[in-house]
Design brief:
Layout: E1 3-11, H1 15-25, E2 30-34, E3 38-42, E4 49-53, E5 65-69, H2 72-81, E6 85-92, E7 98-103, E8 109-114
Parallel strand pairs: 1-4, 5-8
Antiparallel strand pairs: 1-5, 2-3, 3-4, 6-7, 7-8
Length: 117
């Protein structure tokens, strides 16, 4: 498994209410997607980004970061072999992301995902 990208998943009460701070003030002006409960904003100059999340739509807990990998199936298998707690099983979500949530030994919940090509 190779990590491609790591994104902060920042908990907000309302994505639309929070949007202007991150876009107007911080300049993360590219809205990569907005599903109402999660949206990603990116700097066109640097590629730096953040995801704003109100509450994950399909998982029992909210992750603190999302880690995009090249082989999510291998990552899932490795997490199981290492005995890590799987918080949300390996799932292909309706919006095309294949992902699972794993709890790190420090207690943080991590979203491990592979986006469709």
């Amino acid at each position: 498994m190779r990590v491609i990208r790591v994104m902060a998943d920042l908990r907000v009460a309302d994505v639309e209410a929070a949007k202007s701070f991150y876009t107007d003030y911080l300049g993360l002006s590219t809205e990569e997607f907005n599903m109402g409960w999660v949206a990603r904003y990116t700097s066109p100059a640097s590629g730096a980004n953040i995801q704003l999340v109100t509450r994950d739509a399909t998982a029992p807990e909210d992750p603190v970061i999302s880690v995009q990998v090249d082989d999510v199936d291998a990552a899932y298998e490795a997490a199981q072999e290492l005995g890590y707690e799987i918080v949300h099983p390996l799932t292909t979500e309706p919006w095309g992301v294949r992902r699972f949530f794993v709890r790190a030994p420090d207690g943080n919940v991590i979203n491990i995902a592979r986006h469709r090509d």
